[in-house]
Amino acid sequence: MKPSRALLALVAGLFGLALLLGALPALGIDVPAQLGPLWWSLLCALVLLALLDALWLHRQGSPRLERQLPGNLALGRWSEVRLTLHHPYERALEVGVFDQVPAAMELEALPQRVALHPGERTEFGYRVRPLKRGHFHFPACEVTLPSPLGLWNQRRILDLPGEARVYPDFARLYGAQLKAVDDWLSQLGVRQRPRRGLGLEFHQLREFRDGDTLRQIDWKATARKRTPIAREYQDERDQQIVFLLDCGRRMRSQDGDLSHFDHALNASLLLSYVALRQGDAVGMATFAAERDRYLAPVKGPAQLSVLLNGVYDLDSTLRPADYSAAADILLARQRRRALVVLVSNLRDEDDVELFNAVKRLGRQHRLLVVSLREEILDSLRHTPVQGFDDALAYCGTVDYLNARGSLHERLAAHGVPVLDARPSELGPQLVSRYLAWKKAGAL
User: Fold this and answer.
1) Residues 41-58, buried b or exposed e (16+ Cβ, 10 A)?
2) CA 50/CA 11 separation, integer angstroms
3) DSSP string of 250-297?
4) What is the pLDDT of residues 230-273, one digit of tens each?
5) What is the dihedral of CA 283, 286, 292, 293, to 10 degrees?
6) Cα 89 to chain center, whole Å?
7) Could you give the CA distance from residue 386 to residue 116 in angstroms, rounded to a whole number?
8) Alpha-carbon radius of gyration of the chain
9) Taking the alpha carbons of 395, 396, 397, 401 in that order, is the dihedral positive or negative?
10) Which of 21, 22, 11 shows the shortest CA–CA distance to 47?
11) Is the confidence at residue 393, as pLDDT, over 90?
12) Please, what sign has the CA dihedral across residues 409, 410, 412, 417?
């Protein structure tokens, strides 16, 4: 309980009056004798009123609160939380409200002053922006009540448990109103390359059209129908994709609001969404995490929800990336041939260990190594050199990029494709590579 501004102003006024009454005699000015007892009477009356007001406030009931909290929040996006106050008060009053938001969330429009009117419930909202993924709890809400005479303010903490899951930003696609996924992918920069040759899997027979090749003609059906009949093909379905996601310390680098790990997770979920629409099965495995996870490849739209719920609280650690151990675990769990997408941030010191791991994975699976490149490296490489410090930074950057590029070239020379991408461009590039391989029958 704290004194209000009104009580502090009254106390300050009495204190100022006391100073004045004490200073006037020292200046030779006569002061009526009645003013002294009057001042003490005012002080006693103020103390009595303050005590009575505090007692009334203590006996005053608290309002009842309800919180409307979205169960699923998207990382880095603003969402609204609604609070409703029910109260038994027979007079209008203004209260202060502050919701106890988790520390990993930014907030707007808190605290608020809310006017309560008799017989009415009051509803208002504020916005939160999650800065981390995971499972978060909203424990309570703080309400500041004024006393009936306005001399005190009391802060009361009301239990109001709530919880929300913060998913990767990709979660906005789940249930989104998309006109067409292909249009949306093109807006992201994903380009589907034309098919080389014919399709991979027979789909149906249809009449011959302009642009069809002679190789597509089904001669038996043509003889029966006595009109040219062509075979129509579609991309092969029922393939499997497994993401092998590095959760180690290299993925903690920050580019913008998101870390490399968050960019990698968003890109993996984006490709999962596209692959599931193509009829493929998608799974995920992690390494260098606090607790490694494995989600077996499954087909169907419901698998996207399984992936989201399986990795929404996953975070990077300070552990080093152990590629050999990751290859052992994946080979033991994934027996069927699949496209394995290894997402990490490669360094030139990974040479021996990485080559051994990808060699063993490549014997059983189709492998794509994705290496994230820090945005700052491209900025430093294109920054004009204007001094000694700039020259050192430029030479160090170029030397690092050359060593990194040499590792990528050695992997490519051993038949291991490498996708070197900046985190912000990883999603579209990864989807483009997958669609190109699928159309070309390279999976």
Assistant:
1) eebeebeeebeebbeebe
2) 11
3) GGG-EETTEEHHHHHHHHHHHHHHHHHHTT-EEEEEEESSSS--EEEE
4) 887 655 557 899 999 999 998 988 877 788 999 899 889 989 98
5) -10
6) 41
7) 63
8) 34
9) positive
10) 11
11) no
12) negative
* Cβ partners under 8 Å of residue 388, min gap 6: none
Q: CB neighbours of 120 closer than 8 A, spacing ≥ 6?
A: none
Q: Which helix (H) or strand (E) holds 132?
A: none
**pTM of structure:** 0.72
3-state secondary structure of 300: coil
The pair of structure tokens assigned to 25 is 């005699």
Express each pLDDT in 169-207 by its tens digit.
765 544 443 334 555 555 555 554 444 344 455 567 888
Q: Residues 338, 241: contact at Cβ < 8 Å? A: yes
Let me know: does 402 contact 416? Beta carbons within 8 Å. Answer: no
Alpha carbon 203 to its chain centroid, in Å, reads: 40
Cβ atoms of 397 and 381 within 8 Å: the answer is: yes
Q: What string of DSSP letters covers 135-151?
A: EEEEEEEEEEEEPTTSS
Q: What is the pLDDT of residue 140?
A: 94
For 235-261, b/e burial (b = at least 16 CB within 10 A) is beeebbbbbbbbbbebbebebeebbbb
The rounded distance, in Å, linking the Cα atoms of 361 and 345 is: 18
